[in-house]
């Protein structure tokens, strides 16, 4: 057991590190094994934004077999240090912060004894309970702060975890997505989480519209981010099905490229959903909508100006500088709250010392 003097010294040291911006924010990250994942790019964007604004951030991984993101995200994130739990024997101080994605809710119990700032990151609402012990609350393990990506997700979390502070930080929709200056090509970019559903959609399309067999579908997996954006901006239409999605970056990336979107509305309706695409609740209608759109496109029919305007309006809240300011505001609020807690604790300890 520490005596009061030791406690005072420990908290003073931690307070000094916080005030001098020497504390570290650790982002627990899973290995995609070179597969592009919007959820991992989101984590790297949070870390990079903090790092570039004087808040040291590190990517925390399970072990040294971690592959990294350079193969699909390029060198942009090279400045972020990657540390491994097993090999680097990371020591997390009381003034540091650890951010844990819902993918790792099974680690909350292991982290319950660490007395740092603990933040849960929930991008995929549907995955919360996969590894969380049944009936548990995040706060049981000291996680009382949550970052999520949508208003709908926040409402849900406030209903089931009302003791938590929930902050909304949407993903960054990069400027690499922009309208093509070239003639659009007769292919459909397709992003479907379930591979069997993707196969079914393409098969049904060719069976129902045999006259359109010359139209090709471009699967967007295993591409670098740059290849992904180049393919997206050149297509005539994009098709999206992801029932588990909470935010959904792909439709917004399409809109930023001026590419119309046909999609099935996910189980959790995203905040940005409006008359900005061709949406349906029924996945069985997608093939008809796609065929009708392509036949009209061949005839030279374009999207109405109203839909184009809606697409532009949809993107307004997701400008990069707005999101980056939001990230800094949220993490500075964590820091300021921690400073306040340390100062109150010091005052209490000093009173006890003088009693």
- What low-confidence regions span 5 or more consecutive residues with pLDDT below 50? none
Helix/sheet category: alpha/beta
Distance between the termini: 20 Å
Number of contiguous helices: 12
Largest sheet: 7 strands, parallel
Key terms for this structure?
alpha/beta, Rossmann fold, 2 domains, 12 helices, 5-stranded parallel sheet, 355 residues, 16% strand, 7-stranded parallel sheet
Structure description:
This protein is an alpha/beta fold. 40% of the residues lie in helices and 16% in strands. The protein has twelve helices and twelve strands. The chain has helices at residues 4-19, 38-51, 70-73, 85-88, 108-111, 151-160, 195-208, 225-234, 249-256, 286-298, 305-315, 320-354, and strands spanning 25-28, 57-61, 81-84, 97-101, 117-122, 145-148, 165-168, 185-192, 216-219, 235-241, 261-264, 278-280. Strand 6, helix 6 and strand 7 form a beta-alpha-beta unit. Helix 1 (4-19) runs antiparallel to helix 12 and helix 7 crosses helix 10 (286-298). The model has no long low-confidence stretch (mean pLDDT 90).
């Amino acid at each position: 057991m520490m005596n009061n003097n030791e406690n005072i010294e420990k908290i003073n040291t931690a307070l000094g590190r916080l005030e001098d911006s020497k504390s570290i924010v650790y982002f627990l990250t899973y290995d995609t094994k070179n597969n592009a994942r919007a959820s991992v790019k989101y984590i790297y964007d949070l870390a990079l934004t903090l790092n570039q604004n004087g808040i040291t951030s590190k990517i925390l991984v399970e072990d040294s077999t971690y592959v990294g993101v350079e193969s699909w995200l390029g060198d942009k994130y090279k400045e972020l240090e990657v540390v491994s739990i097993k090999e680097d024997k990371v020591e997390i101080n009381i003034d540091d912060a650890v951010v844990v994605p819902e993918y790792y809710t099974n680690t909350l119990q292991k982290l319950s004894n660490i007395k740092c700032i603990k933040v849960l990151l929930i991008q995929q609402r549907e995955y919360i309970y996969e590894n969380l012990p049944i009936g548990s609350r995040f706060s049981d393990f000291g996680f009382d702060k949550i970052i999520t990506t949508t208003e709908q997700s926040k409402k849900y979390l406030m209903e089931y975890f009302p003791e938590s502070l929930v902050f909304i930080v949407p993903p960054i929709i990069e400027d690499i997505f922009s309208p093509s200056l070239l003639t659009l090509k007769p292919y459909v970019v397709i992003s479907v989480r379930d591979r069997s559903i993707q196969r079914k959609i393409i098969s049904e399309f060719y069976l129902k519209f045999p006259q359109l067999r010359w139209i090709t579908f471009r699967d967007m997996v295993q591409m670098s981010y740059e290849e992904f954006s180049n393919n997206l901006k050149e297509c005539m239409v994009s098709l999206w099905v992801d029932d588990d999605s909470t935010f959904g970056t792909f439709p917004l990336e399409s809109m930023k490229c001026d590419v119309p979107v046909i999609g099935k509305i996910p189980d959790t309706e995203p905040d940005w959903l409006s008359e900005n695409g061709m949406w349906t609740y029924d996945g069985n209608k997608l093939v008809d909508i796609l065929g009708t759109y392509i036949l009209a496109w061949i005839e030279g029919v374009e999207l109405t100006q109203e839909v184009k305007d809606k697409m532009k309006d949809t993107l307004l809240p997701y400008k990069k500088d707005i999101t980056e300011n939001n990230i800094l505001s949220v993490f500075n609020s964590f820091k300021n709250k921690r400073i306040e807690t340390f100062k109150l604790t010091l005052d209490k300890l000093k009173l006890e010392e003088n009693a």
